[in-house]
Structures are given as C-alpha cells and as structure tokens.
Amino acid sequence: MQLPRSYRLISAVLVFICILTGIAWSSGAFRHHVRAFVEKFQGHTGRNAYALLLTSSENERYFQSTRVMLYQLLHSDFAGDIPVLVLVTKDVAQKDRARLKKDGAHVVPIEKIEAAEWMDAAESRWQDLLTKLRIFEQVEYDKICYLDTDILIVKNMDGVFDDPATEIQSTLDKGENVEAAFPEHYMFAARTDSWDYEHSSENPNYFNGGFLVFKPSQAMFNYYMELAKTQDLFDWGMMEQSLLNYAHRQGGSMPWQQMRKEWITDHPTEDDYNKGLKAFHDKFWDWQPAQSQFLHDMYMAREKEMEDYWKNKG
Q1: How far is the C-alpha of 73 from the C-alpha of 69, rounded, in Å?
Q2: Sign (positive/negative) of CA torsion 100, 106, 111, 112?
Q3: Burial class of residue 71 in the structure, from the number of CB atoms within 10 Å of its CB (0-12 exposed, 13-18 middle, 19+ buried)
Q4: Which is one GO molecular function term here (predicted)?
Q5: How confident is the model over 187-234, as pLDDT tens digits?
Q6: The domain 47-313 belongs to what CATH superfamily?
Q7: 3 state SS of 187
Q8: Quick one: DSSP state of residue 167?
C-alpha cells in the first residue's frame, strides 16, 4: 500500500535533516556549540579563552602579528567562537588597544612584572616576559590556552581544551619547602620544545612556553612570584619559560602534562604541515635560510588575508 503523499514528504524532510546534521557534526565548530549548550544545561559554564600578550607598541611587527592571531582565531574560515584575551601593559598605545578591540579582542590591561637585576635573560627582548605570568590571574575562566603571537594556525584549535592532558590534577606531596602554599589542584599542559628544525634535540622533560593550556589560579600566580624571588634555583636565561619549567618539572609536586602532538610544533617544517599539524610556531616574517619557505609564504599570505578582510569590512 502506498503511503499518503504527506507522509512521504515528511519522511523526505526527515532524511534531509539527518543528512544535514551528519555533515554539520563533522564540523568542529558545530560540535563546540552543542557541547557548550549541554554544559550550560547541566550547570557547567565551561568558560574557556585564548590569551595573547602585548607588552609594548614600540615594535610594530608584534602588534601586526597579534592582529594576525586574532584574525586566525576569530575570523578565518576555521575560526571558532571562543573569546580571545589580549593582555596589554601601559606601554601599549590607546590607538593600538582600540584597533585590537575592533578586531574582536577582549583587551585586558595589566601591570608589568619587572625582572630583578640578577635575572640574566638570554636575549634583551625577553626581559619583559615575566609579565606573561599575569595570565594566571584571569580566574574568571576555567581554562586558558596561551599562545605566542608568532604562530601560523591552519585548522580550528578549539579541541585543545578537551585534550586529555588538560584534566585537573591533584598536587603531589614532594616535601618541597617554599613560602607560598601550593594549590591543592592544578592543570598545566604544554608541548615539548623542538629546539631545531631537525627536531633532533627534543627533551621530553622540557616544554616550550609559547603554547600552554592551564587553569588560572591566584594561588598558582602567588607561588610563581615566590619562585621569582629566588636567584639560584635554576638558570633564568629563558625567563618565564625557565620559571615555569622549574615549577612544573617532572619529579616535582605539579608536573606538566604533555598534550597531543597534533596541536603545534616550534621550528616547523613542510613535513610537519604534511603530517596534519594544526599550528606552527616560528617568526615567519623574519625569514632565515633554515626556515620553511613554504610556511613562510603561507604566513605572509595569511597576513594579507587579514588585511583584506578588514579592508573589505570598511
């Protein structure tokens, strides 16, 4: 017996909806919206954010790379809808702050953390980088992914907040004697530092400070500040990266967790791109012979894409 025409029409519509749902579910952004709705319904806010740092308007190149990062995370074809914080010091001009806000950033004014005279940064431009620790004070968020601004992103990164390494950990009792109390729980995840373009010198116990996922905590910030008063605990050459690697060393009370390799690498190569990684950390605008010409060209094209996007916006 043939079904009535109205039943056949309804069945066709339902099949079409199922097909569209299946296609949409393959999109990371769609899954993110569904997850956010479910968490809200269950009473979990799940407030996550990306965070960038800009300490001065003196170097136009870093301001421009911050804008490229905002475009990649908020406006590109693979962008999600997770907010992006840009922490700025008093040395960032008001006109630059206004431009970053127009680009979609949540601009967060912070006070600079001055390095002690005895801290001997390997490069003078790193002298302000203890200020990066201010990101741990943004306690209104559950998880923050910090990124240096010299990163090329080629795929949606929002899944990083669900990486198994970003689960909350219980602080271990290693009998360490420090003035500031450890938080009872913490979360600190990172990726191994590659050191060179051959990736031949990776130390599995040392991470790169340019890509971190962590749970903000005032207690953790206070602990870092106590460490920053101590001169001889470790080599301060890499500034905040040295401090964080000591605070979260393997064998310590709050060891860092290794995130999946798919997210990012520093000293990237075209081979890394072909392996499907999502982001690449290098100063692509300052091309050197050892760098990937392929990724350099891709980054410069992304920068022009950003400029054209805002030019067309008017």
Answers
A1: 6
A2: negative
A3: buried
A4: glycosyltransferase activity
A5: 999 999 987 888 877 788 999 999 999 999 999 999 999 888 887 777
A6: Spore Coat Polysaccharide Biosynthesis Protein SpsA; Chain A (3.90.550.10)
A7: coil
A8: S
